[in-house]
UniProtKB/TrEMBL annotation:
SUPFAM superfamilies: P-loop containing nucleoside triphosphate hydrolases (SSF52540). This is ABC transporter ATP-binding protein. Keywords: ATP-binding, Nucleotide-binding, Transport. It comes from Streptomyces ovatisporus. Residues 5-236 form the ABC transporter domain. CDD domains: ABC_NrtD_SsuB_transporters. InterPro entries: AAA+_ATPase, ABC_transporter-like_ATP-bd, ABC_transporter-like_CS, ABC_transporter_ATP-bind, P-loop_NTPase. GO terms for molecular function: ATP binding. SMART domains: AAA.
Amino acid sequence: MTVVLAAERLTKQFAKDDQAIVALRDFTLSVEEGSFVTVLGRSGCGKSTMLNLLAGLTEPSEGVVSHRGEKLTGPDMDIGYLTQSDTLMPWRDVQRNVEMPLEIRGVGAEERRGTAAALLQRVGLAGFEKHYPRELSGGMRRRASLARMLAGTPRTLLMDEPFGALDAQLRTELQEELLQLWQGSGQTVVFVTHDIEEALLLGDRIVVLGRLGRIVTDQKIDLPRPRALDTLRVDPAFVGLHTAMAAALKEGSS
Ligand SMILES: Nc1ncnc2c1ncn2[C@@H]1O[C@H](COP(=O)(O)OP(=O)(O)OP(=O)(O)O)[C@@H](O)[C@H]1O
């Protein structure tokens, strides 16, 4: 298998009031092409710091990130990033938000419109093209953000607790929709969460982080796909994995 994304011995420290704060220490990870890796960890263990480094948004204090064999020195159009909070542009309607990555690439207006319309249909937002972000619910804004990320056709997707702020039912809907969008796409995903069920529902592999991004467990998840939470919750294999992940999280925080 081809390694798409590689983090080698990453350390990140921030300066605050003349003091160095270490957020991530000696973090190493290889992500294979087409895989869905969920990174599970408690609040403050360095997940967002790690994802920002993988996205090329910040520079490591030590270590190297490589994407498709090349050292990452800044943001890359081939890497899509869905953050925890909304980054839709408030002054653009949904259609024009989704068109943005295509505009940056210099794609013509007609093709942009066609691509955006198809994506909005896929994420269930057909009919909302002319709405502004403030006129959408939280779930709809997440869908629009997802469509905007996909419009850039990145082969690698990084997601930082993208559904964390939604109610449980909506979260389940969006998780299942994300799986449908991803399956067969060939895209590689790194999805950060602190939710064990979410990690197990989505991932081919779960990496559990402890303090400062220490890898406590790195485990393959063989649960058959398609996966749905309702049926998974009563599957003994799922229950066993859930218990193991909970124990790993606990170990990581000590
Ligand atoms: N820009 C910054 N300046 C100073 N400290 C920072 C900065 N960014 C993160 N940190 C610190 O680094 C540590 C890890 O933060 P990070 O946001 O990566 O954790 P996280 O696992 O993503 O948390 P959460 O799940 O709550 O989002 C925290 O102690 C945080 O305070």
